[in-house]
Specification:
Distance between the termini of chain A: 36 Å
Number of domains of chain B: 1
Strand order of the largest sheet of chain B: 1-16-15-14
Order of helices and strands of chain B: EEEEEEEEEEEEEEEE
Largest sheet of chain B: 4 strands, antiparallel
Oligomer: heterodimer
Strand content of chain B: 35-45%
Structural class of chain B: mainly beta
Shape of chain B: globular
Number of strands of chain A: 8
CATH class of chain B: Mainly Beta
Number of strands of chain B: 16
Radius of gyration of chain B: 17 Å
Largest interface: A-B, 59 and 56 residues
Shape of chain A: globular
Order of helices and strands of chain A: EEEEEEEE
Number of domains of chain A: 1
Helix content of chain A: under 10%
CATH architecture of chain A: Beta Barrel
CATH architecture of chain B: 7 Propeller
Helix content of chain B: under 10%
CATH topology of chain A: Thrombin, subunit H
Structural class of chain A: mainly beta
Distance between the termini of chain B: 16 Å
CATH topology of chain B: Methylamine Dehydrogenase, Chain H
Chain lengths: ~90, ~210
């Protein structure tokens, strides 16, 4: 159990509707992913910082969107493993 | 009645605690995608993808925005309210009906659209305050929602009729709520969990209150 920064703000949260144990948390420290309903977490990409919100496409759950506080949008099409900035 | 952390009516459990990796500083990110005209988001609070898989909704200090090209361009969507400015704090759609969307605001409570954002109604009956920081739809029962109100009337509210009437059911988690989600994981007691992203971390509680 663990992996999220302690006593820090969780700004955004998203759950995979096909597998609810898979979830993402958006924080200033970055974006974190859990595959066990939040028991453990891992950061998903070093380039993501100051994250404000995250969402999973319910039609294609490998497609994940994350937004930073300033509005920069990032997209992953492999379930959060790799990310590209949406321009 | 307000309870302190030791005597809260319901105990919200911290989902995960431990030291985390610290990211290296990165250069400031580039501009967000937007067409000519719409204002900047200013500060993003919420993001969701509609059930159709094509429509993105974004809530920000500057209001509500919609994209239908995967976030490359955004259109501002006006909510009907007396307040000159609405800070959109939370968004939630329905997993089966892409036309249904709930929008929680800092100033004017909860708005509901049943036609993909074409028209809106305020659904605040029973809410003790209009500063709503989180809204969640039950994935198994789309007319059942929870909302987190901050400030006046602070607490967690539940509706069983898609916002027709809200009832306060709990003080809510400690710390300012930033996001609320109903998660389809069984509690073993006939319900599912309500997760809350807060200023003190990620917490969860059975939604059986």
């Amino acid at each position: 159990m663990g992996g999220l920064p302690t006593r820090r703000t969780v700004n955004g949260f998203a759950v995979n509707p096909e597998n609810p144990k898979v979830m993402f948390a958006a924080m200033r420290d970055g974006l974190f992913r859990s595959a066990d309903a939040g028991e453990s977490w891992k950061p998903v990409a070093k380039e993501l910082k100051n994250m404000a919100a995250v969402a999973i496409n319910p039609k294609r759950t490998d497609e994940v969107y994350a937004a930073s506080e300033d509005g920069t949008l990032y997209v992953s099409t492999d379930g959060g493993t790799t990310w590209t900035e949406r321009r | 009645m307000r309870f302190d952390n030791l005597t809260r009516t319901v105990v919200w459990l911290l989902v995960a605690v431990a030291a985390a990796s610290v990211f290296q500083p990165v250069p400031a990110a580039a501009q967000h995608a937007k067409p000519a005209g719409p204002p900047g988001f200013e500060h993003v609070h919420a993001l969701t993808v509609a059930a159709d898989g094509r429509t993105l909704w974004l809530g920000a200090h500057a209001g509500l925005f919609r994209s239908q090209d995967g976030g490359r361009t955004w259109q501002s969507v006006r909510l009907p309210a007396k307040a000159p400015h609405l800070d959109v704090m939370a968004l939630v759609g329905d997993l089966r009906d892409s036309r249904l969307l709930y929008v929680a605001t800092h100033e004017a409570g909860v708005f509901r659209s049943q036609d993909g954002g074409g028209s809106w109604s305020q659904v605040n009956t029973g809410l003790g305050g209009l500063d709503v920081h989180g809204v969640a739809v039950d994935p198994n029962e789309s007319s059942k929602l929870h909302a987190a109100v901050r400030g006046q009337g602070e607490g967690v509210y539940r509706t069983a009729d898609a916002g027709g009437k809200w009832v306060r059911v709990d003080d809510g988690p400690a710390g300012e709520v930033k996001v609320l989600a109903s998660v389809n994981i069984s509690t073993g007691m006939g319900g599912i969990f309500l997760y809350a992203g807060t200023a003190e971390g990620l917490l969860r509680n059975p939604d059986c209150f």
